[in-house]
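User: I'm putting together a teaching handout on how multi-component assemblies are represented. Below are the sequence lines for each component of a complex, exactly as they appear in our records. Could you produce the 3D structure of the whole assembly as structure tokens, so the students can see both representations side by side? Please keep the chain order the same as the input.
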Amino acid sequence: MTRLFNDPAFFTEDMLTGFLDANADYVVGVPGGVVRAATTRPGKVAVVVGGGSGHYPAFCGVVGPGFADGAVVGNIFTSPSTTDAASVGRAANGGAGVLLTTGNYAGDVLNFELAVAQLEAEGIPARYLAVTDDIASAPRDEIDRRRGIAGDFTVFKVASAAAEEGYDLDQVLRVARLANDATRSLGVAFDGCTLPGAPEPLFTVPPGRMGLGLGIHGEPGISERPLPSAAELAELLVEGVLAEKPAGAGERVAVILNGLGRTKYEELFVVWADVSRLLRAAGCTVVRPEVGELVTSLDMAGCSLTVMWLDDELERCWLAPADTPTFRRGTPGAAGQGQRRDPAETAAPDGRAAEGEAVEADPEARRSGARIATALTAIAGRMAEAETELGRIDAVAGDGDHGRGMVKGSAAASAAAQDAVQRGAGPAGVLRAAGEQWAARAGGTSGVLWGALLTAVGGRLGDHGRPDDRTVVESLRAGYQALVRLGGASPGDKTMLDALLPFVEALEESVSNGRPWSAAWADAAQVASRAADATAELRPRVGRARPLAERSVGTPDAGAVSLAMCVGSVANVFTEQKEDPP
Amino acid sequence: MTRLFNDPAFFTEDMLTGFLDANADYVVGVPGGVVRAATTRPGKVAVVVGGGSGHYPAFCGVVGPGFADGAVVGNIFTSPSTTDAASVGRAANGGAGVLLTTGNYAGDVLNFELAVAQLEAEGIPARYLAVTDDIASAPRDEIDRRRGIAGDFTVFKVASAAAEEGYDLDQVLRVARLANDATRSLGVAFDGCTLPGAPEPLFTVPPGRMGLGLGIHGEPGISERPLPSAAELAELLVEGVLAEKPAGAGERVAVILNGLGRTKYEELFVVWADVSRLLRAAGCTVVRPEVGELVTSLDMAGCSLTVMWLDDELERCWLAPADTPTFRRGTPGAAGQGQRRDPAETAAPDGRAAEGEAVEADPEARRSGARIATALTAIAGRMAEAETELGRIDAVAGDGDHGRGMVKGSAAASAAAQDAVQRGAGPAGVLRAAGEQWAARAGGTSGVLWGALLTAVGGRLGDHGRPDDRTVVESLRAGYQALVRLGGASPGDKTMLDALLPFVEALEESVSNGRPWSAAWADAAQVASRAADATAELRPRVGRARPLAERSVGTPDAGAVSLAMCVGSVANVFTEQKEDPP
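Assistant: Of course. Below is the structure of the complete assembly, with chains in the same order as your input.
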């Protein structure tokens, strides 16, 4: 379990402070993550890796000459926000564009693709690749749905070496795709990890048993079986990975035997002795294997085998020199480095946005804005209260980070909203500031979605006068539509939409019957709450593997539950102050 | 816990096979451990580090240019044997002598000092240094009794850099001593590790508690207290270590924040943020800190802080380049390397001694030799049966490795004895072969002592005719005296002597009363057994810290118990075959 922390809510920030201090020769912090201490040399493509933290040395531990130019650092097991990914990409850009790359997880894909769009809109060429090496996470005919595990390391290494060689952005992307297509991994778990401050492990494996294909955030695996001997495990992993050998692949292979945190070096070497023997027996030539902790999962017990089948280009990139806080190979040329960064250019990684600009709203709109800020503060309070409950629900079919994300996002939104009120903002200004900060600070899929929801609602409410009943329901409908557009889900897919839509419809119906929205809100919130509970009967359909979908039946969707809680807590605010709603 | 192994009895061998395979660019195996892939350049002092395994990357993970020339690899948490240490020293020697260095543990000190004597006897200049950085393991006025923990790393690094610079052997020893005198560590533990195949953890810490000063093999610490926050822990460690600042030390410090296996990188960085701040606040200038896993203890949860106060020479050595499987710094010059080793020169690390030479004994002596071999096989069987029980007893006041060591040693002794019988050996030849192999294969203090015991007994029995009663009791007295000489303990110090002496005395008395030794053996063995049980009331006086001594009261000494078991099992052999004793 994770025992050492101060405030669990700031674990990632504290971790990053220590990491940057200990590795000041290699890296500096920028908002959203870290970049190399030297600037990217002009004309070199920048490779920016990332994802949630808790996987050290992935991802910030491999920033340095010959490897990544920057790493976006999300909260533990949580995707960084779009803002974070774009920020690190911007800082790493040396003028030749940026390849952003992560493992294939919904939150990462969403946020990094949005960051690519944002960078491109700013005139910075950007591309994105999601690594899909985990053969246990989806069948061969749905290879694009596979998750990224330790294969992140081979793909990131190869792409980084290609960039260092001077490839242009599309060529770096081409080689990264080749590496991903040539990489297969299979992992096992013996016991789960515990998030900082969490009362229980994120997941467990019964003593004496092993989860085959269990994901690095505890995602369900293929099967559970008795703990094998080291030799039996080696056979299982080698056979499993070799059975997925890509068509036309040769016999030269880069290999990683990766420890997840608590399966230690000595055990890995015992297993490696058999893995090496079996690979040779199968006709493989192992090129510069890595045996150790490259992509961990806090103190999770388990390991994984990754094989990347090499052609000449991939082998050259795999063997190319690199020099990072945790991984070194050969002697990277100093000539290819940029200049030491100006300290003024970098910032402490606290993720806080620049001071918002002044806004203009009329007094009525400002009073509405203040009420909305109060509501957001109530939401933040409710989420702080519900964090553990939400994490527990989410752990059934997800990685248990939903409560933490909601707490971080809502707290940031509340603070930004109160700040916007001080600057004289109305509903639009308050909700835009809150939405931006929710998305920036919460990370994960739900952070982006909540950010979009608040921003869309605010955009319809505007900053002039007090919104009337029709405007309020229209704003909520606009928020719902923003989520549908952004998230790609439909009602019935077991998402927050399944609580939000009944809520919006109930409020629309009451208002169309002549009831003031503030009077109708509490009843609509009850509808949302019942709808959230009813998601227990649904089977998710968006971007989730079959075992995950089945495991989730009987448990409501955490996003739907938290949404219902949020609208419920706002009802209380409005009821208490019903003489003066926004 | 350690989950991945094949035969637990061969865990270290299997681990080493995998380690050598994965790191063939850096290291090759030699009997007893590993050396660099390139020979030591002529005229360069060789630095050979070592100790039990289970502490990776200590010790074999730091063999390479700029760091160690070789590592002696003992079984898990068990000192390598004298034979192993001498073997690696011999292989690493480049003609300018060898510094052997380990943490300060009784078994390591004993075996490595004997290895130094052996190397010197062969004409290879050799020195030994035991690292004593753990401030929790003995008070300041008994600094030489302190154990070595992560300070091993700073001392080994500095000594290796000095050797690389071209210092002669005594100058390397001088700098190593300076580094040791300037290094202080303090560690904490949150939970214990589990040896391969063991049913229970070696030790535990209650949930929510922390053992301050708990050793890397579970040796008792100073106190147990509630789990602190990361900041509180940082304060405790920094204050504790700075309070032990050596007289006259400056303000520049090399610092290690070391994870023991299950306290992960992210947590270490969180703690490091506060450690770094506190060190700066105390006026220290931190020079190239290391935050990570440098000296682990399987999957033990915990961490330690090490500070080495620097002068110009130590700082230069600390910062000097190094390139090893796990630790790299800068770019070590290739010019200073020797040549790639001839594969024929190296051997699989199975620790087996060369084929014994033919021996000559008369038929009567050969029949006695065969009986003794049978007795040794019975001992090996009894030890295999008692392994867990002995480990459990030893874990109370030691590191729980006694059972494993006895199993390995007695099995090797049995095999060597049977082999000697095939070659026609009598009592002396059988017991000498058995003693050598026991010492070589068991490791630890008890391995050396048992080796000496058997050899001394055999030396008195001789290889001519059947030993008479008086010769048998004299041989056992000679064995007892060899132990007293070698181990430095006296009766009453809670060691195996406390079972052996009553046994020898009982047998002497019976024989002096005219009873044949073979008839008297069983009764004397009963005396030994009762004496072993009675050691529960004793407090150890040899080389054990006060908390350890107190913890051991109420539990018998594992060495005394196993000795009584051994003589008991031999009684059965002799009783069954009493018509024809040796």
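A couple of points students might notice: Chain B touches chain A through 58 residues (CB under 8 Å). Chain B has 17 helices and 14 strands.
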